[in-house]
FAD-binding PCMH-type domain-containing protein
Amino acid sequence: MAVVAVLAVLAQLPPQVPTQPKTHHWLTPAAGQSGGVCRATGTAKEHGDIIEIKEWGRGDPLGTEETCATKCGRSSRCKGYEFYSVPKSFSRCEMHAKKPTHIALREGATCKVKGAPMPGFVPLPPLADLGPCLKANLREAHLPGDPEFRAANKCRNRRGDISNPDPVAVARVHSVSEVEAAVQCVVAAGIDACARAGAHGFENDACCSGGVIIDVRDLNALEYDPATGVATAGAGHTWGQLYYKLSQHGRVVPGGTEGGVGVAGLTLGCGRGMLTQWLGLSCDRLRGVEFVDADGKRQLASKDVNPDMLYMAKGGGGNFPGIVTKFEFDTDPVPSSVVSKSCMFGEWDGKRVLKAWTRHMYDMGDSKRQMFSHITSFSNPAHWAFESMCFSCDQSNLDRFHAIVDQINLEASGRRNGDGCHVRDYNGPGGPWLQKLLAEPGVGGGAPEKLAGPPEGGKWAADHGSSKNGAVNVPTYELSDAALDALIDRFHAKPLDLGVYQLMLFIYMLGGDKVESVPVTEGAYGSRRAKWTIHWREFRADNPEVIAHSDSISSALGPHLPCTGFYNYFDTNTPCTRPIPGARSQRDAWLEAVHSDVGKMMAIKGAHDPSHTFRSRLVEGHSLPETHHAGSIAPAIPCGSTSCTVNVLGTLVNGFSCRDHMEYQRSGYKGHMPMNAIAACNVVASMYPPCAPCKPPGLPPQRQSMRLRRLQAVNASASQNLRVDVSFAELPPPLQELVWANRSLLGWEPPHWE
Ligand SMILES: Cc1cc2nc3c(=O)[nH]c(=O)nc-3n(C[C@H](O)[C@H](O)[C@H](O)COP(=O)(O)OP(=O)(O)OC[C@H]3O[C@@H](n4cnc5c(N)ncnc54)[C@H](O)[C@@H]3O)c2cc1C
């Protein structure tokens, strides 16, 4: 109470107090006192008026009330802010679109309403101008309320926690000058932008909640210069389109395997695929890029001009500080033939297959072999397979190819002479390379023009459902028995039996002389030293068990491998990147796991995009405003401690912290709470081992697990918008116990504790 009283006094002080921002006079809401949670009449139930939430980790200099107030002050939409700080843990800023009218008291939080501007403060043009600005300068701009807006703001992954992006606008650009105009509108509105190309990013980063999506898919012109072999491709190409168009010139750029994936996102992440060991990574074929910078101006980057931006284009992924409009690639002759050989194995053969395959990886990665090989494993029906390919191979290369594959087959299964393997020679209409590609996305061949269709047109990319993925790099050719056992154990522990694609493992080579001969300093790519990567993907990821299982794969491999992964596959919440209080933030751990020199990237970002116009994981609290499970969970904090509770309850689910979800429960709004939020908070808590044993008395384990299962079952069958009445007693037990253990911190006594 004493703290509240002090804050109330502080609120009366004039604006020159150091914590007061310089943009506006800040007032306390009429119906309340300082020190609490902002509420606007009629909106508290759903927090529907929050425009944006920023969270900062411990010690982040930006995590102050002043930053929060300045941000709100600059935004024409923001009518008030709530700042909340837990000492030595995290701080958070919520910006409200409706003027807060009253306060729910909470220690450590401040709620302020925007008053008159401070003398001399020049407000940015209001966000209300953004729509007219975009509509005046672009052929296609979609705003909330427009009939096309819902369809326009989608990304591929429909996983529950990331599938409802909430961008302020979608700018579908048709020319570089439209990109320039779009960026200028965004800068004028004082918000941030994300580029979207193929929309296949696993975490839907391109979907930009709170910012503007700049959709480049229509920038898909291709120029090819036969004299130099250089192709200049618009950033909107899908790989299917680029492969098809380049094949008309007899050329190829090594890219990804699936037709619908964007050239932009894949190349910026450095892009591996079937041609990597023969021709190199996509980013290694990059001569330069054209991009629009943070001032909305067209620029070039090459070895000679803006070389630091070329560095960012080679592995910086979604952190590229600009919108790439064109990629300039060195090309190679398109493969004249493709011979593939696939060998199948049973459910229990995984370890032997992996051991035999990795033993021959060095040989297969030699670019002279002109080979590709990977292991795939699906959980239902459970099996292992490895498929290898030989591109444009002459007889001697083909003989060697068959000898390697047969030897792996022999070592893995005892079968001789290619028994159990199937050879296919791709020589159908359209050329062998395109036929192989058509088979790859699962469309089973057909006319090669299919590849050139728009992303929505082809069947391959249409439905990637709701999936959770992950990846771990392996720096050596062979992996210890213990690590292999850990991986295979996770494969057999598949959480549910939900069909053929529920759990998929992909084992890809990342090394080879083509890749390893490029100096690490060439780009931001952080996997140059990796020999291979273990990539997995689980569908039906709206089910908390699936998410927990996916995380358990990285956790199981964690003790055996360094915390590194291939950017294009690396999951936002890879357990080894979770923050360690006082030691490192999740941002730093995550970036270091996927990039070669994070300090250099930050310097480039600071020089080219000082106001953070382009959303990026390089900026703490600036990235990933959408949900991320367990993002702020720290390991090794004692059971029931304050930090444990704060970290779990501070985790964002559907844009709001689990603590906020809890508050709705108790706030007199009849305890309406989305089931998927309950289940997600539950996953957060259950994935946090130190919290799990904190059982309150009187809740035997069987009862907890029955309750958990029931919640999960309801969640699995619930549609996106289902709301179910839930009392506190119905909350997942881990959250109940955390709240109970820290009720004084939360200022709350549960009304109906059982
Ligand atoms: C089905 C499937 C198959 C895949 N196969 C492969 C594979 O074979 N090899 C591989 O390496 N990866 C593969 N991936 C991973 C893929 O490379 C990444 O998900 C990649 O980010 C997708 O790029 P996109 O343009 O489609 O996605 P988006 O979601 O549009 O973009 C991804 C990221 O790049 C940024 N971005 C996009 N365009 C631009 C631009 N013009 N300028 C600046 N930033 C931009 C976005 O803001 C976002 O952060 C696959 C993914 C899926 C879903």
User: Anything to note?
Assistant: The chain has 25 helices and 29 strands. Residues 155, 194-202, 205-206, 216, 235, 256-258, 261-262, 264-266, 268-269, 271-273, 318, 320, 323-324, 464, 568 surround flavin-adenine dinucleotide (CB under 6 Å). The chain has four domains: 2-117, 126-334+607-619, 475-596, 642-746. Residues 475-596 form one domain.
